[in-house]
Structures are given as C-alpha cells and as structure tokens.
Amino acid sequence: MKVMTEAQTGGKVRWLCLTFLAFILALGLSWIVWIPLNFGYEYLYSLIGIDQHIARFAPANPLKHDFALTAQSQRYDLFEGIVHAIHRHGDGLASLAYIDAQGQSVGLLTHDEVVHLQDVAILIERMKILLYGSFVLFVTLIVWLYKSRIVMPSFKALLSYTFVALIVITGIILLIGAHDVFYQLHVWAFPDDHKWFFYYEESLMSTMMKAPDLFAYIAVLLVIVAAIIFVIIMWFIRQIFSARTMTHD
Question: Model pTM?
Fold first, then answer.
C-alpha cells in the first residue's frame, strides 16, 4: 500500500510538472501571437489614454518637445519599430525617428534608451532558450508518462490547480504592489550600470508607452491568450491519453 501511495504521489507530481510546463509554453506561444499585433498597442492606445499622456508630458522634454505634434499613425509605426527591433537583437533601434513640425527627422531614442532596449532584446533571447528547454522537457515528460502508463488526473483538476495558482500569484503581486514588483523585476533582469528607469519628461520612449501602465495591460492580454492556448494543449494531452486507455482496454 505504501509503495502504491508513493507511486501515485510521484505520478501526480509529474503531471503537475507537465501542467506547469504546458503553461510556460502557452505563455511563449501567446507572446508569439501578439508580436505581429504589436501587443495590442493600437487598441490600448485609446483604452489607457496614451494620446492624452503624450500631450501632457512630451512638450516637457527639453530636447524633443514637439513629439506631441506627431500623428497617431506615426506613433503606432514607432512602437512597431521597437517591437521588431527587440526581437531582432536590437537591430535598428538607433535609427528609429519621427518627423517634427519642420519636416526634419528626429531620433526617437536616447543612447541610454537604446542600451536598455538592447538589454530587453538580450532578455528575450534568453527567454527563447527557456522556451526551447521547456518544450524539450514537456515532450520528454509526455513520452515518459505515456510509456509509464501513469493515469492522467482529472482534466478539471489540472486546470483548477493552474488557475488557482494564477489567482494566488496575482494576489501576491497586488499585495506587494504591481509597480514595486515591476521595478524589482527590472533590478533582477538588467545590469546594475545600465539605466532602466526613465522619467516621462526626459524619455519619449516611456511617454509613448505610458510605462509601466501599458505593460500591465499587455500582461493581461498575454495571460488571457495563454489561458486559451493552455486549455487547448491540455485538451490534446487528454485526447492522447484517453486514446491510449481505449486502445489497451
């Protein structure tokens, strides 16, 4: 009986690990889905009042005070340029520019902003490695569970464990403070001697992104799509293991 209990416990742990890996992959796929959509920037632009934010803070920029006069479509293009650049090792960041009221081309980013976004590009490359590693572990674990004939727990139970974990994590973030969590993650993720905090009055990048508010909304969009992808992944896994059970029956 003790051996059976330990075996069952081990099986549940493996299934929980598989479920965790499935959600990591779902987040990665969600990120990929949102890249060509520029992470919903055009939709969020109006939703969170980025236009008014730019009108308020851009004129205060001592070096580039006319950004508030740019067209909305030009701002969309600039954000798209940033998205493309950080997914291409930071290539093209320094050349991003807008046309001012005099028809002159003005560089969007300062040197420190370019360095920061290059750090973001490096972080994305590391996340790709994590995603590839998670995929290998995910496939390996599926094969192991399949060949070991370990019974799959209730589909609803696996989903409920995941969503309860998400609720707990969200609660912890809200308890600590979303801004505090955001800043601490930056401290951990980026080099100490590289600037990552930019005041709106000195940074068109931060102004046009209304940082960190925009990132919070993007995180919500990522999780929503990831949740859908996760359910689909787990449904396919259930079909595979259900087919195995029927075959052996």
Answer: 0.88
